[in-house]
Amino acid sequence: MSDKLPNLIDPLLFAERRSILTGVLKISELERLSGMVVNTGGDIAVDARFAKQGKRAVVSGKIQTVLELECQSCLQALAWPITLAFKLAVVSSLQEADSLEIDCEPLLLNGEKVSLHDLIEDEILLAIPDYPRHEYDCIPRHQSRDSDFDDNSQTETNNPFSVLAKLKKTGE
Ligand SMILES: [Zn+2]
Predict the structure, then answer these.
(1) Domain ranges within the chain, ordered by starting residue
(2) Is the pLDDT of residue 50 over 50?
(3) Average pLDDT over every residue of 12-36
(4) DSSP characters for the chain?
(5) How many other CB atoms sit within 10 Å of the CB of residue 136?
(6) How far is the CA of 70 from the centre of ligand 1 (A)?
(7) How many CB atoms within 10 Å of residue 37?
(8) C-alpha 42 to ligand 1 mean position (Å)
(9) How far is the CA of 133 from the centre of ligand 1 (A)?
């Protein structure tokens, strides 16, 4: 399970051979993704299966990881589990991509090989929300409140003794 994944692969050959690639990729190996996480220390588990569907070479698989994103409310780290499935059909042109006869996303093959790492990174980037946030209310109330008090009332409310003094006065 801790096998290292190859990067550049020939998807047509792999499809002919019905190859299965399972392994682990480090988050730190993916540059774009690394720029979006607070911690690049984690692993990404990948299971990619190559096959033929009709004449079409397809690759389908699963990607699993836990990212540490920055919460857009409190700017603290936020664990973001990702489990996604993908299914791509190999095409050699954009026209071919437009007229895909099967229910797949296109995987454009420019030369002989594609980057498996790029493919995985693209899928993960698509799964990251634009504004990740903690599910709970992560900003304490006193931080989000507008602080347009004058200095006197500020010290008064922050000082428990002044509150006590007030209570004494009004309690009589
Ligand atoms: Zn938060």
Answers:
(1) 8-127, 141-171
(2) yes
(3) 97
(4) --PBPPSEE-HHHHHHTT-EEEEEEEGGG-HHHHTT-S----EEEEEEEEEEETTEEEEEEEEEEEEEEEPTTT-SEEEEEEEEEEEEEEESSHHHHHT--SSSEEEE--SS-EEHHHHHHHHHHHHS-SS---SS--S-HHHHS-----HHHHHHHH-HHHHHHHHHHHH-
(5) 6
(6) 8
(7) 20
(8) 20
(9) 5
The pLDDT score that the predictor gives to residue 141 is 67
- Model confidence at 102, in pLDDT bands (50, 70, 90)? confident
- CB-proximal residues (5 Å) to ion ligand 1: 71, 73-74, 134, 138
Q: Give the other-Cβ count within 10 Å of 110's Cβ.
A: 8
Q: What is the pLDDT of residues 140-160, one digit of tens each?
A: 766 554 544 444 444 444 555
